[in-house]
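Table S2 (text version). Query chain:
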Amino acid sequence: MKHTLSIAYFFFLSFLSLGQSVLKTMNRLPDTGENVSYTATFGEDNDFSFNSPFFIINGDGTVTDTITGLMWQMTDGGEMTYERAVNYSDTLNLAGYSDWRLPDAHESFSILNEQFVNPSLDTIVFTKNAAEYWWTKDKQYGDTTKIWVTNAGGGIGNHPKSETISAGGVKRFHARAVRDVILPFSIPNHFTDNGNGTITDNLTNLIWQKIPNSDTLSWEQSLSYADTLTLAGATDWRLPNIKELQSLNDESKSNPSINTTYFPGIGIKKYWSSTTLPNQTTKSWYLDTQFGITTYDLKTLKHYFICVRGNASGITGVTENEILESDILVYPNPFTSTIHLYSKANKHSCELYNTTGQLIYSGSAIEELNLSYLSRGIYLLKIKVDSKTTTVHLVKE
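Corresponding structure-token output:
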């Protein structure tokens, strides 16, 4: 299982934009967790690793997602109706916190690990039980009898409230509560039209192809097309993984369920992701833009696709002159008191930030830094060697 320590550090874009404010509750978009190769064709999910899942087990019935910054209930609350799930989460008192809530669709989807099935969760982190689905707070647009739920197979979809056992159905819908470690904040513009055939999602910092290809291709053909695409002067385009693709979905819309102001050619179609279904490796996940469900199909069939670039890091202005990770050594990580930092150049400066972007430390040529005074949590260490910069994401235990 891939683990990379991560944190958000935000810079705002200043391109041509249209107003559409959005609340940001997740620092960064996590990777799917898929770490196995299923094809010799370059461009599948496993070929890219951004924001790999990393959780802190707090020892009090909660876990902290170091990528999103959200805190989760380790063992879900069990099977219950949707209405009870809302009340259960809102009134939960766990680990001394009383500000729990039911997650939205994107938050719930963020903790799934697509390398696993039944459940598609890291069961070292989240207690395994008989749950088939997990409630979110989001209702289907135009039909309040249906709720968005994530499922143990790794997908997300809109299901009738009546399907759960407590409502007279035969399926097990459970509730897992979440809370904000850091208060969410509003971003003035969800999307930015860059004026060059690309769209930036300011929630994830991913850059998207504005007009998808008009032709359908098989899964492997889509991987190859994306890998060889040149658009807006960039050649690092790729097929998005299923979490990246699902991040475009807007549960307040349908037919299609993606913002057509920014993606006018999206249509009501099925879009390939780069993520393989691990227990049925001849199939890959796709997003259906009628409502926004994620499901899978045979890779030999032809579907539409939209290309993406970037790494959903939440960090801009850093990677243009990036230092190779092999040139920097920072340890231990996670740490409890002191970190050690070495660079091959032996001449560097560093800055340490907390999750709100506040500068905590600034210095040069440091080899040992005592951070025992810091609270437990996630921090970003920005290291500069000559004119090059890189970042290391630290977890204080």
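Notes on Table S2: The chain is about 10% helix and 30% strand. The first strand starts at residue 22 and ends at 24.
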